[in-house]
RNA sequence: ACCCGAGUGGUGGAAUUGGUAGACACGCAGGACUUAAAAUCCUGUGGCUAGUAAUAGCUGUACGGGUUCAACUCCCGUCUCGGGUACCA
């Protein structure tokens, strides 16, 4: 005897959560006899603040999919774990003296409790934590695979360093140039022969190999954040300040580990064509990779000292070669000092020190500001021998292309502003397309002032120019990428140590059998101050022998997250990161759900690691995620109360213009819709114990605003609170009911009653007024079967489309219809319970058990949709006149068009509109609509 | 500035390949039950106009055009909001 009441819900949910755990119903084995399905949530960082209702949104979605696939007969992998390394725990340790391992473990425990209350079907036996040595042993191992590999450009795949050495011994590097075209050997050359290679000493050989390794050490410009005492990745810097904390960031040269992700730029781009990500997600990644096609052109150079004979530029517009009026070189460019004439040295030095004084923030804030300085040197246009001045300016970046550009003011906005600002004469090569006031970057113009190109369309000129450059031996087609190699060192404690040993300042991989290299225990987490991380303070650990040292840096959190989805497949394997069988069976992640904030960093690194492991023969797929869904953010819906200034009185929102009031945020948890629970308000804060209220219609109505969910706005909704009041099943369904998964939306509890009522109606369908089970074994009618199969069909379709809000609606419609039919037949309700189980697993289990089943509903089978119950013999046609619906007529679906037309035209309403005249046209779409055109 | 995505009642949102706009739910209004309230159930609910009413007509998917027998859906332009990028040659 039970009602679906608050007390009963609590009992049911606790009962099943316990039983699920006891029986291990979510434990999944690698069973190749069954088809597999892999549903994955993005790795959470277990923060101390716990979950708010925004977090589980995506988890609920994947949980529904996982449960649905299970009742559809799949073997479903649905794991969860923790991205447990990271800065917040380390900051907390510095501030509160609690070891990151301890605070992290505690946070995980809270997190887990909250997750469990929502009834997720995670196989916890597969849980991973990136900070667990058993896990990071393999993070370090994969890092060593990257260290031991290089990218063979002609094959477009990674190979072992061993293979590279074999190539060098055979033919030097003539077929495998240095990935960084600017790199020079101590001799000044960039090419070496087989005999050169053999003559190099070991250190130089290692230095050369380092230029090729996918994980390599180099002096690189890094984003140094003094306040955090660490280096930040490009994506951790926003507008020149740190993503976390907003501290200033400056450029600094440091010897850092990097991943040579740029070598994979093309494959990362191409791979996007195979995967099912949203267009916007693909766009973000494409923009980040930033591929551009163009040409590299060599210009001869005329300068006072004549040390430098020529310069190279990269341009996407070789067709504009006759419009070049000047050259601009990055201030940091090597050749600057050599080409500067003595008469310009003073100015150039002044400009260089100005550039050096400017921080990232300054530069970003003043993008529009035009600065620059003439060097006194000239470049010679190879086609007409015209001499153009060479300038330096900070708008040209040293790190992109060749660090030098050709200025074409009539076609490029920045070049135009530059030319105008410094009074450089502008050559117009696009005729009327250039108005003298602003640049026009068109491709459509017919070229003028362009000698042999005159009369040629710009689009077509592109190929002509490149061919000619190649012929003359002064240029070639080239593709450039915006993306840079990924900085992989962090000056932090709480991360994976690098599994290398420095001998003579050169890193060597640790032996695989010595992994993991465990993080040493310490209580000192502050950085060493010298720019090195906290590990540098642990001399005993850092210094292995007189000439042997460890790396004082640790890896970024992206490392552990770049491969965790593979570990879930075989989480306890101590011999490999995962067995070949497990990797082959579980294969790609079928659906991956998470926020779009991971678009560039995490997803690109995970895709990179997968590709490398694939190239090295460990995986038979090279894209990790088949389908990716970005859940929208849930924003907060704040509530305000209005205090009359100077009094201890609060006035309801509708009456505030009669008083002078101050708006105060009020905890949304004590407001129902817009109505304040005045009793709870008095208890909320001691200051409010004796307040008075001025009500409207007997109620206190609050004001509202949509803001981000934040503790300080008192608009954070903890899922525990919802579960307390309505139960986990209502929470799950309500979060889905809010709207499309991908869409951002404000949290508001105002509609939650509707979902709760639905569940109760479902319950009541098979109970009488006293709460006793009341089921009928009678044969269902045709109508009841139609309702059932219509619902089953829609639910299946919706889940396949990740459209969960509409499936919740469909369930509601179904229950409303069955209620109207007073249907309590087992043959109808049983399949519905199975269909509902992914959404409301606790209630479904309880009802399933009440129906007499001893096994969990998880092992039931989703009923097959029988189309035969859905076929209709007639259709209620909307009859429109000139496109406007004027009437409805029920007609058989197999009625011939002529008969339909006859009936429609004969009808009274149509007669009224036609007024006896013959219509111009009658359009009949069988099963859809009839339109009479007058 | 550039590149994406979105804009539908008082609210969240629905609408297969162009084919009945507003499903479902909240809120609101009225009614039933109750001494009363809560809870529950039933009915109505985009706006405007006419009518006691059933109903009829007009209007309506950010705005202005267009294509079509038919447009929330396709095309062109404008505005607003959200996301991404930040001098990438």
Mean pLDDT: 89
* Terminal Cα span: 65 Å
| Cα-atom radius of gyration | 35 Å
Number of strands: 35
Main sheet? 7 strands, mixed
* Low-confidence residue ranges: none
Q: Structural class, from secondary structure content?
A: alpha+beta
Portion in beta strands? 15-25%
Per the principal axes of the C-alpha atoms, what is the gross shape?
A: globular
Total helical elements: 30
The share of residues in helices is: 25-40%
What does this molecule look like?
- The chain has 934 residues and is of the alpha+beta class.
- The chain is 34% helix and 19% strand.
- The protein contains 30 helices and 35 strands.
- Strands 10, 11, 12, 13, 14, 15 and 16 form a seven-stranded mixed β-sheet that branches. Strands 24, 25, 26, 29, 30 and 31 form a six-stranded mixed β-sheet that branches.
- Strand 3 and strand 4 (157-160) form a beta hairpin.
- Helix 1 crosses helix 28 (841-850) and helix 24 crosses helix 26 (804-820).
- The longest helix is centred in the C-terminal third of the chain and has 19 residues, at 782-800.
- It is globular and about 100 Å long.
- The chain starts with 5 loop residues before the first helix and ends with a strand.
- It binds one RNA strand of 89 nucleotides through helix 10, strand 11, strand 15, helix 14 and strand 31.
């Amino acid at each position: 005897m039970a009602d679906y009441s608050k007390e009963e819900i609590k009992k049911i949910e606790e009962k099943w959560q316990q039983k699920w755990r006891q029986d291990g119903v979510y434990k999944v084995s690698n069973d190749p006899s069954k088809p597999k399905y892999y549903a994955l949530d993005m790795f959470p960082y277990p923060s101390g603040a716990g979950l708010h209702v925004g977090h589980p949104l995506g988890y609920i979605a994947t949980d529904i999919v996982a449960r649905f696939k299970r009742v559809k007969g799949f073997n479903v992998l649905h794991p969860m774990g923790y991205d447990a390394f990271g800065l917040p725990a380390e900051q907390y340790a510095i501030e509160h003296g609690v070891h990151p391992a301890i605070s992290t473990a505690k946070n995980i425990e809270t997190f887990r409790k909250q997750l469990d209350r929502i009834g997720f079907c995670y196989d916890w036996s597969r849980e991973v934590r990136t900070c667990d040595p058993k896990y990071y042993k393999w993070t370090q191992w994969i890092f060593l695979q990257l260290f031991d590999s290089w990218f063979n450009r002609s094959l477009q795949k990674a190979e072992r360093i061993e293979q590279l050495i074999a190539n060098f011994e055979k033919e030097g590097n003539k077929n495998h140039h240095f990935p960084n075209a600017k790199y020079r050997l101590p001799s000044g050359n960039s090419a070496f022969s087989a005999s050169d290679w053999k003559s190099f000493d070991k250190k130089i050989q290692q230095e050369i190999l380092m230029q090729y390794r996918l994980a390599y050490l180099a002096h690189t410009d890094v984003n140094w954040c003094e306040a955090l005492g660490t280096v930040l990745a490009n994506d951790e810097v926003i507008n020149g300040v740190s993503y976390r904390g907003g501290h200033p960031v400056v450029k600094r040269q440091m010897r850092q580990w990097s991943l040579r992700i740029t070598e994979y730029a093309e494959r990362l781009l191409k791979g996007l064509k195979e995967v099912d990500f949203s267009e916007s997600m693909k766009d973000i990644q494409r923009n980040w990779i930033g591929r551009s096609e163009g040409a590299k052109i060599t210009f001869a150079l005329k300068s006072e000292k004549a040390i430098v004979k020529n310069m190279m530029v990269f341009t996407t517009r070789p067709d504009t070669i006759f419009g070049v009026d000047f050259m601009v070189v990055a201030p940091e460019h090597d050749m600057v000092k050599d080409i500067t004439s003595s008469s310009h040295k003073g100015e150039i030095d002044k400009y260089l020190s100005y550039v050096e004084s400017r921080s990232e923030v300054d530069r970003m804030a003043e993008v529009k500001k035009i600065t620059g300085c003439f060097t006194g040197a000239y470049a010679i246009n190879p086609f007409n021998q015209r001499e153009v001045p060479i300038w330096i300016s900070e708008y040209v970046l040293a790190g992109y292309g060749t660090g030098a550009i050709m200025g074409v003011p009539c076609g490029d906005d920045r070049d135009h502003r530059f030319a105008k600002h410094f009074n450089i004469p502008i050559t117009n090569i696009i005729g009327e397309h250039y108005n003298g006031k602003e640049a026009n970057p068109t491709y459509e113009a017919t070229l003028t002032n362009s000698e042999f190109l005159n009369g040629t369309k710009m689009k077509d000129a592109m190929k002509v120019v490149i061919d000619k450059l190649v012929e003359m031996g002064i240029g070639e087609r080239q593709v450039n990428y915006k993306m840079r190699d990924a900085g992989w060192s962090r000056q932090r404690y709480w991360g994976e140590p690098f599994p290398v040993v420095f001998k003579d300042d050169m890193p060597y991989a640790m032996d695989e059998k010595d992994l993991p290299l465990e993080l040493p225990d310490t209580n000192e987490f502050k950085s060493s101050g010298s720019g090195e991380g906290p590990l540098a303070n642990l001399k005993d650990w850092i210094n292995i022998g007189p000439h042997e040292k460890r790396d004082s840096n640790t890896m970024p959190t992206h490392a552990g997250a770049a491969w965790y989805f593979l570990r879930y497949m075989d989480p306890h394997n101590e011999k490999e990161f995962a067995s070949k069988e497990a990797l082959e069976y579980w294969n790609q992640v079928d659906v991956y759900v998470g926020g779009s904030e991971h678009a560039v960093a995490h997803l690109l690194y995970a895709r990179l690691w997968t590709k490398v492991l694939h190239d090295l023969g460990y995986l038979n797929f090279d894209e990790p995620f088949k389908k990716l869904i970005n859940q929208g953010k849930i924003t907060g819906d704040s509530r305000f109360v209005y205090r009359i200034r100077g009094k201890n009185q609060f006035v309801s929102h509708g009456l505030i213009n009669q008083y002078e009031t101050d708006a105060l945020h009020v905890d949304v948890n004590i407001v129902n819709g817009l109505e304040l629970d005045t009793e709870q308000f008095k208890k909320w804060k001691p200051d409010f114990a004796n307040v008075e209220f001025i009500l409207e219609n007997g109620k206190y109505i609050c004001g509202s605003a949509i803001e981000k969910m934040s503790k300080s706005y008192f608009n954070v909704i903890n899922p525990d609170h919802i579960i307390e009041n309505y139960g986990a099943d209502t929470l799950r369904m309500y979060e889905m009911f809010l709207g499309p998964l991908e869409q951002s939306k404000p949290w508001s509890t105002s509609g939650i009653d509707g979902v709760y009522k639905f569940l109760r109606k479902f319950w009541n369908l098979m109970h009488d007024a006293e709460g006793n089970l009341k089921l009928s074994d009678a044969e269902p009618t045709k109508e009841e079967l139609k309702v059932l199969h219509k619902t089953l069909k829609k639910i299946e379709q919706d889940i396949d489309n990740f459209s969960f809000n509409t499936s919740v609606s469909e369930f509601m419609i179904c229950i409303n219809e069955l209620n109207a039919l007073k249907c309590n037949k087992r043959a109808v309700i049983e399949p519905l319970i199975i269909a509902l189980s992914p959404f409301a697993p606790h209630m479904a289990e309880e009802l399933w058990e009440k129906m007499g089943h001893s096994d969990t509903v998880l092992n039931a089978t989703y009923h097959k949709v029988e189309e035969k119950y859905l076929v209709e013999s007639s259709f209620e046609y909307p009859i429109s006149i000139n496109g406007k619906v004027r009437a409805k007529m029920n007609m058989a679906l197999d009625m011939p068009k002529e008969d339909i037309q006859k009936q429609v035209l004969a009808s009274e309403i149509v007669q009224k509109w036609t007024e006896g005249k013959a219509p111009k046209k009658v359009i009949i779409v069988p099963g859809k609509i009839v339109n009479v055109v007058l």
